[in-house]
Amino acid sequence: SGNNLLRKRDLTIFYILIFCGLRRGELIGLQVMDADMEKRILTVRGETSKSRRTRKIPMNPELFLQLEDYLKERKERNYKTEYLIVSTNKDTSFTSHGLKHWVNRLRQLSGVRFHLHQCRHTFACNLARVGASSIVIQKSMGHTDLRMTERYLRSMGVEDLRSDINKLSLANLN
User: Fold this and answer.
1) Per DSSP, which regions of 8-165 are E strands?
2) Which of 16, 39, 164, 169 sits in a 20 to 30 Å window from 94, CA-based?
3) What does pLDDT average to in each consecutive run of 10 residues of the chain (174 residues)?
4) Cα dihedral angle (70, 139, 113, 31), rounded to 10 degrees?
5) Rounded distance between C-alpha atoms, residue 165 and residue 55, angstroms
């Protein structure tokens, strides 16, 4: 059913936002060719990026599997548009109007008030939580200035510091 495509597409959108931290325009501008399934790399082309720079983001394994499933479903339904995220009504790209509707539907279903850009913050903070360096986070997000990346990480609280603080010991002081 069409619901199957819708569900797979919606999960793919969510995974791309959470595991790649894309901006609204970058997500909508993604083309099928930007998803290198062999190398497991997602390319954000300069023409869709705020920084005007192309960046490559390794695909998280969960995103890879979801994307593979979505692309298979898309192919079965004979979608031909070069855009990765499709409209479920016709063979065209997903629009910013469609994305607004998607966010509103998710808010209603989840009861959580959020905006799309929060996924970008979540991506940055989650990378920091697993120990990624500021440079890795900066490159992944496509920031030209590290200060911008640091702004994203300000929301991290005291609990986010605990695991690193707990690694300190008198035994390992220099």
Assistant:
1) 35-36, 41-44, 55-58
2) 39
3) 86 95 95 97 90 90 97 94 92 91 92 88 90 90 89 79 72 72
4) -30
5) 33
pTM here is 0.85
SS3 127: helix
Contact call for residues 55 and 138 (beta carbons, < 8 A): no
Cα 78 to Cα 39, 85, 131, 139, distances in angstroms: 24, 14, 42, 35
Task: Please name the residue that has the structure tokens 């499709």.
Answer: 86
Q: 90-124 burial by CB neighbour count: b if 16+ within 10 A, else e?
A: eeebbeeebbeebbeeeeeeeeeeeebeebbbbbb
Q: Are 17 and 27 in contact (CB under 8 A)?
A: yes
The DSSP bridge partners found for residue 35 are 42
For 72, which DSSP code? Answer: H
Dist CA 96 CA 13 (whole Å) = 13
Tokens 């496509």, residue located = 142
- 3-state SS assignment for residue 48: helix
- 53: helix, strand or coil: coil
